[in-house]
Design brief:
This protein is mostly beta strands. Helix content is about 10%, strand content about 45%.
Length: about 180
Amino acid sequence: MAWSVPATAIAGQPFTAVMANAQMRDNLNATAPALATTISSWFTGTGANAIAERIPAQNNTLASSTTTSTSYTNLGDGVSTSVTVATGTSALVLVYANFFNSAAVNTWVGFAVSGATTIAASDAQALMQNHTGGRRFGAPFYVNGLLTPGNNTFTLKYKVSSGTGTFTTRRIGVIPF
């Protein structure tokens, strides 16, 4: 059901049950409190006079794993740090990881999107460091207007320029719009 612009009252015109239902009940049923189904959800505009409930999600992995891949890949431990959320065309993706390399070379943690949308992991939306000691990094990435509305899965991906990258305490969170 969609919200509709209320009618203008006219003196002397009767206010019928049909009018009351259309102008009050139906419009109140199209508000965020009436549509909310989940604690901690929020609402975003999806068009003129339209809103949709969005439910943020996150996933954490504490296990340590490594890769020597020079292209974005999953880690060898078989643990996929990912979340699936219903999105509109945009989302805020929060990436966090503790990672390092056996050599002083570049090491990346990025994310890919699958489901309603297919986006490969890229250096433009990734954490990167050039260090042999473990460091904790986190950053938000705004994926603006690139998503197909629907269920999208955001999965952390990893790569190195050379050497062996070690990754621990991996976290991804998504706030869908």
